[in-house]
Design a protein that fits this description.
By secondary structure, this protein is of the alpha+beta class. It is built from 19 helices and 38 strands. Helix content is 32%, strand content 31%. A hairpin with a 2-residue loop joins strand 16 and strand 17.
């Protein structure tokens, strides 16, 4: 097999490193490789990454120069923090008078617990005047004597006045230590949280720098000319140089890779993604075509690290069944992997001969109520996968597929103990396991106000079939297992977009300040290799916290539009009607561009205004946005300023809660410009104008507005 260009995604897990090759044009999977993660090799995980790439190129028949995009995700930073395997941080506090009181308190970060009995290794030194080079160098020498391997400079209000932190770094440069300033990690106020985030980032910096250099050198030596990208914890990728500056962004990037796969391969626009392994299920949300992120908790404390909002439940495909007093009492949290036992459903009929039910303690201190089968072929665990297999929920070709007859034979002894038939026993097992997942799914649907009429449940991971189908059945939601679910994470790495988020606290932000934050985010992704003409920027202004946030995303190359499949008019109409839960005959085309079609229906209610439900559908037949009630109007780039000013003026509400401009989205060319995060009419119009400024005067523009209550 040979292809002109491929995108390569490599996911470095705790046990295995998975790599995939995806056709850069059709985005179809061309090859996949699994190798053991090389934790103990002299080159660390870098060796496994290069080995996986070499084998992948051999399998697909591609040359290194065929690689158009190469990215990897890694658990290295997460594991380093969990295991306490970090560098000693030398923290230099800056200030005099009251400021010195606050910075000296930062020495308490040495009490942060990384692992049981293991604290963050930190040495503290203080300088009153950052421009006193001799004092700074004396402080650095003391820190080095205390074992410091990396330096952090921190000063109150450095977000607004970074000169002091920069002066300390300049003076410390001759000592050759890796170093950073707190204002470079985040531009949000809050000395304590900002410095803590910077210190944790610094603790993993030396190890991540070494790995980055090894991987970069090895990839270059292999002949790959595409720049190396690294998975972020918010579902995007970043350039290697950005990872060298902020390696903390790779923490929690494992779950982010999976949901990126659901977003890009499965084209989920609204729903819940479940990544199910052998022991646990990670649950995350896609809302209106974007992954849900929040400030993450690191080492038990909130941070300024924006990461995927992922919630983990201790139920997976290998979760073991528990019984007591002749009844099923639960499933998990221990799994067959933890107990060191094979799944009963993967045994041969001969191995299951003369099977009888027994109970064990998977680990010392566990209750003695986990079910196993003692049979002719040895001891086997009864798991969620066994139950799903017995009910025929695991499709052929799935990573976890087994012979349904064998699965039923594996459950028969347990069904006898429970006094029921095999199908009922299997259903009870799945009910018990999935109930734990559903509790979290329901909470996330409420938290993010997902539209249950359009939300879907998508399962990934090798254990997807043990949870997702049963959850969909019991909840009544639409559900499916992702294609190539066992490698959805490296697929997500291969398909992820370059992403950057810029946050500023700007009380009473002016139009110019908001546009400046937007421009900074756009420049950042372009600098990391994103094609400028394809960058999308979402801006949110939070009046309660005075936070201006810009999230920019873009592809490292403009993907060709010659995709394998484009939905025709009938398919797009069918997708819109299904989402609207309406007869296709009642669904009308309201507007459109070359890339998107806007469909709508009218709902007439007595004594209340008519509602216009709207769906935006892309060329692949995927619903990209939905609104319960929206106004749609078509204009041109030349006419847009006047039209948008009128529409925003008519739709802005005023009340005790302040001014609330409508949620505005613009369809421009191949893009949906989401401006819904801005509540003030004037900055909203300024952002709209910035989206229009480089486009031809006669280009069509579709405005979709939702009035806020």
């Amino acid at each position: 097999m040979n292809t002109s260009r491929i995108r390569v995604g490599i996911d470095v897990g705790g046990t295995f490193t998975d790599a995939v090759a995806v056709d850069a044009t059709t985005l179809e999977l061309l090859g996949q490789i699994k190798v053991p993660t090389s934790h103990h090799h002299a080159d660390g995980v870098a060796h496994g990454i290069v080995e996986a790439l070499d084998r992948l190129l051999e399998q697909t028949g591609c040359a290194p120069t065929d690689v158009a995009f190469l990215a990897h995700g890694t658990t290295q930073a997460t594991n380093a923090l969990l295991e306490g395997d970090v560098a000693t941080v030398g923290l230099i506090g800056i200030g005099t008078g009251p400021a010195a009181v606050f910075t000296r308190r930062l020495a308490s970060f040495g009490k942060l617990e990384l692992a049981p009995g293991k604290r963050l290794p930190l040495a503290y030194a203080h300088v009153a005047d950052p421009d006193d080079t001799a004092a700074v160098r004396h402080a650095v020498e003391r820190l080095k004597e205390d074992g410091a391997q990396v330096l952090v400079a921190s000063q109150p209000f450095s977000v607004d006045r970074p000169e002091g932190e920069q002066a300390v770094l300049d003076a410390a440069r001759p000592y050759g230590l890796p170093m950073t300033a707190a204002h470079r990690i985040t531009s949000l106020y809050g000395l304590h949280k900002r410095t803590r985030t910077a210190v944790v980032n610094a603790a993993i910096l030396p190890r991540m720098l070494a790995t980055a250099d090894l991987v970069d050198a090895s990839i270059t030596k292999a002949g790959v000319t595409a720049p190396l990208m690294v998975m972020r914890c918010d579902g995007g990728v970043m350039a290697l140089d950005e990872m060298r500056r902020r390696p903390l962004l790779t923490v929690l990037s494992g779950p982010a890779a999976g949901v990126a796969g659901a977003l890009m391969q499965e084209r989920v626009s609204e729903g819940v993604f479940l990544e199910t392994g052998g022991t646990s299920t990670d649950i995350s949300v896609v809302r209106r075509g974007k992954v849900a992120v929040r400030h993450a908790t690191v080492l038990g404390k909130t941070s300024y690290l924006n990461a995927l909002d992922v919630r983990t439940v201790g139920v997976g495909g290998g979760s073991m069944v528990r019984i007591g007093d002749g009844r099923l009492t639960g499933v998990g949290p221990r799994s067959a992997h933890i107990a060191g036992l094979p799944y009963a459903c993967f045994a041969s009929p001969d191995q299951l001969r003369d099977a009888r039910v027994a109970t064990v303690r998977p680990l010392d201190g566990d209750p003695d109520d986990y079910v196993v089968l003692d049979a002719a072929g040895g001891r086997f665990a009864v798991t969620m996968t066994c139950a799903a297999g017995a009910l025929g929920r695991v499709p052929e070709g799935d990573f976890a597929h087994c012979d349904p007859e064998t699965a039923r034979a594996a459950l028969a002894p347990l069904a006898a103990v429970l006094g029921t038939d095999v199908a009922t026993a299997a259903t009870r097992i799945l009910d018990a396991g999935v109930a734990q997942v559903r509790t979290v799914v329901d909470a996330m649907i409420r938290d993010y106000r997902l539209d249950k009429d359009t939300a879907v449940v998508v399962g990934g991971g090798g254990g997807a079939a043990s949870v997702t189908p049963h959850l969909a059945l019991s909840s009544g939601m639409e559900g499916r297992i992702a294609r190539h679910n066992e490698v959805i994470s490296p697929i997500g790495v291969a398909l992820a977009l370059v992403r950057e988020q810029v946050e500023r606290i700007v009380p009473g932000a002016s139009q110019e300040q908001i546009l400046a934050v937007r421009a900074e985010a756009e420049r950042a992704v372009v600098a990391q290799g994103a094609a400028a003409e394809g960058v999308e920027v979402e801006v949110t202004v939070d009046p309660q916290t005075s936070t201006v946030r810009a999230v920019a995303t873009g592809a490292t190359e403009l993907r060709t539009q010659d995709r394998a499949h484009r939905a025709d008019d009938t398919e797009r109409l069918r997708a819109a009607a299904a989402s609207l839960k309406a007869d296709p005959a009642a669904v009308h085309v309201l507007a459109g561009t070359a890339a998107h079609t806007v469909y709508g229906t009218e709902t007439h209610r007595r004594l209340r205004p008519t509602r216009h439900a709207v769906r935006i559908v892309d060329m692949d037949g995927v619903v990209r946005h939905h609104a319960a009630d929206a106004h749609v109007e078509t204009t041109t780039v030349a006419g847009a300023p006047e039209v948008l000013a009128r529409l925003v003026g008519e739709s802005t509400s005023y009340g005790d809660g302040g001014v609330r401009a409508p949620a505005l989205r613009l369809l421009l060319g191949s893009r949906i410009a989401d401006l819904s995060g801005v509540l003030d009419p004037q900055p909203l119009l300024a952002l709209a104008h910035s989206e229009l400024r480089t486009r031809a005067a006669d280009e069509p523009v579709v405005a979709v507005l939702e009035v806020r209550s």
